[in-house]
DNA sequence: TATATATTTAGATAATTATTTAAATATCGA
DNA sequence: TCGATATTTAAATAATTATCTAAATATATA
């Protein structure tokens, strides 16, 4: 969850996500949309993959990336819980100084 | 928008948001929930404020913080656009190498 | 098999962000 | 007005992240 939020915190990575929403694309095809070097894009793709936001699969020479909307929906869920209709003063948040977010 | 995502990328700041969802709280009250120093919490509160996610208002000695759900809903909107039902291959994303995210 | 293409990994550096202690500012209440 | 409380700002440092070039790996194809 923390990884997802961190991955979404970068504008390049958010643009990559939008590109992948349209269709699956190879690493090089993605890189062509940016002025950044290919290794940098590779690094961003890795961050997205590590967060579970995208998946990759080799097809011959190419490595195709695709979006994993499941994780995006988890993030969405977290936000909905906050803005969420109704439950305005309902579910108490309980954590102590040691507590970590799941 | 970028500021919002960056603000949400930190677990301490997300916990602060959850605390403020319950009710408005003073800076000190918020700081008591964490083992971090007060200046650090002040810094995080500033990041949230800068992103427009929270507002502050002085009440005598205390400075009360409250949640601004409007900005959270904008973030929510961004995510909904991606996971969004229906419009699967509809709105083309068009940006060039110079383009900045609004 | 040698060469070209696609992509990642390594290593270095620059930039950003988080954190702390100490000091400054503001308000309250005796 | 003075001392206590609440909070922020400043300055320094540590930790993390982003970026680049060069090198390594994997696959395709002539």
UniProtKB/TrEMBL annotation, chains A, B:
Keywords: DNA-binding, Transcription, Transcription regulation. It comes from Paenibacillus albidus. One of its GO terms (molecular function) is DNA-binding transcription factor activity. Pfam families: HTH_5. NCBIfam families: HTH_metalloreg, repress_SdpR. Residues 1-87 form the HTH arsR-type domain. SMART domains: HTH_ARSR. This is Transcriptional regulator. InterPro entries: ArsR-like_HTH, HTH_ArsR_DNA-bd_dom, HTH_MetalResp_TranReg, SdpR-like_repress, WH-like_DNA-bd_sf, WH_DNA-bd_sf.
């Amino acid at each position: 969850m923390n990884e997802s939020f961190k991955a979404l915190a970068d504008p390049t990575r958010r643009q990559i996500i939008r590109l992948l929403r349209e269709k699956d694309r190879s690493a090089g095809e993605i890189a062509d949309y940016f002025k950044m070097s290919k290794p940098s894009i590779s690094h961003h793709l890795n961050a997205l993959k590590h967060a579970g936001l995208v998946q990759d699969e080799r097809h011959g020479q190419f490595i195709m990336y695709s979006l994993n909307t499941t994780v995006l929906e988890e993030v969405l869920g977290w936000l909905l819980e906050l803005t969420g209709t109704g439950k305005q003063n309902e579910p108490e948040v309980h954590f102590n100084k040691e507590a970590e977010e799941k």
